[in-house]
């Protein structure tokens, strides 16, 4: 599993998903949240197969040239992936069975078509006739010459029909379960103080005789199958074709991508399974994974909340203390920097900043980057209002944000219709920076203010993603933000603008080099027997060059502490490290999305927030921004939050060479659950 220098990236990612599965297994977590974690695990795994497994399969087809940057051969990695996924699926099934028992204790019953009472049978039949029948089209697959292309976001009932007396030959059919149009969970009439729920596919199972009986069959069986397809979008090099046309073509082709995984109910009829595998052109190399009765478990993220007696007790976000009882966010930002930490601080402050700019007669222009937007974006409402008030509004929207391509194409059209200037990114570089620039002219003097953050401009995910956003009018920061936007508006001719940034680190022009310089300074300090330290909080750490520099630093005596949520390819255990490397991952109620870096710097600490993980894609193939934090109180706040996280002994797991994901147990020390303690730490500042 391990190579000498680093952990295989894809194996590390699967280890991260195991941590998600651990949350689902944790009996101290409310059962409704445990169900959601199973849904998150399932959704993560779908995307992993659609992207990473698909990429490895492509590499096998291309041959040796594509394997140069891998820690092992694609074939070996795929074999290990298959082994890990099968073991995870077993654990998933075990956890789900335990959760079903817990639901029963709470008098919540997820029942199937064989467990319905007579009253429920009548209800289900009526529901099928009124809601479902018109939304399904059974496919008699034996009579279809070209086997239908199965969507990788759908589940299908593979049906076998026969007769008790075997008077006519058996037949096979497929029914797509219409979960995109109908709720997958149907709450049934139940006894008092009980809740019975049936899945949409089980209603269809119950009503199979209504669908197929006219063929003369009286014995029916149906089992769920699911296909996962290659989701990578090929952007061809035809210069006569616009990026938008290429994306639209790529999105259509994605629906026909090669299958990279075929999951089926292990109870499926053997002859039907063999028939499906043959017709789909699959083989044993195509990740054929037997599973349980239920698939597309990602839908369980939306398991009905109404059936639980204990409602969600998530604490509400609160205004940043500096912004409490003020008339205008803008007035504060023009005087001092403010660091918003989501989901603890209210996201309203960010939208208020843009709303104020939209109606401020002194504001002349607003520029923002957008990677993933909320479906009903308040940010876009504010920007549209700004156009109506005569402001020049520019949005740089990244059309290639994976799985948000279609949504962002639609946003592009809507923004342009509203009169907003839209730029669609840079050739060969995704725009992942989270920046905003507002230009204001007061008494003939130009003032720039805005924000730099780790977060998407998405008020929906801000409720569940842990992020930081610096609201600032610092002229050095804003001067560089202005340079970045000027480059994004004319990327073919203005690359030197990025190189001219003096305060921000910007990928791909100088961030990698400056990070190496910062690490090298800590190494030099440690060699001279002086205190040296690096503290990192990232989503992912996989860049081999920077990992090698961290190895060098650890061997020199630099204290290294890390909080890494996802991919982590560094080997933390090495006898040559003078100070043991501390590396943890926190998986809890909120998704840890913030990125923070602290370098001891001879006692004059340098503190940064950034949109970039330490991955090749972020450092070499994206526009990313790393922003220094200058104000001492904000530096202290970030350091305090990181210290709380590094002290977590409830939801933190140790990141070791063997990928054990062992919890860091409190033993006799004070229990620290960092997300709860961070909320309390920031909330206390309201009264200080």
Radius of gyration: 27 Å
* Beta-strand content estimate: 15-25%
Multimeric state of these chains?
single chain
Tell me roughly what share of residues is in helical segments.
Answer: 25-40%
Mean pLDDT across all amino acids: 90
Overall 3D shape = globular
Taken together, the total number of domains comes to: 4
CATH class descriptor name of the largest domain: Alpha Beta
- Give the name of the CATH superfamily of the largest domain: Polyphosphate kinase middle domain
Q: How many DSSP H or I helices?
A: 19
Number of strands: 25
Structural write-up:
With 688 residues, the chain is an alpha/beta fold. The chain folds into 4 domains: 106 residues, Methane Monooxygenase Hydroxylase, Chain G, domain 1; 192 residues, polyphosphate kinase like, CATH 3.30.1840.10; 183 residues, Endonuclease Chain A (Endonuclease, Chain A, 2-Layer Sandwich), CATH 3.30.870; 181 residues, Endonuclease, Chain A, CATH 3.30.870.10. Helix content is 37%, strand content 20%. It is built from 19 helices and 25 strands. The strands form 4 sheets. Strands 13, 17, 18, 19, 20, 22, 23, 24 and 25 form a 9-stranded mixed β-sheet that branches. Strands 9, 10, 11, 12, 14, 15, 16 and 21 form an 8-stranded mixed β-sheet that branches. Helix 11 links the parallel strand 10 and strand 11. The longest helix is centred in the N-terminal third of the chain and has 32 residues. The radius of gyration is 27 Å and the shape is globular. The two termini are 51 Å apart. About 1% of the residues have low confidence.
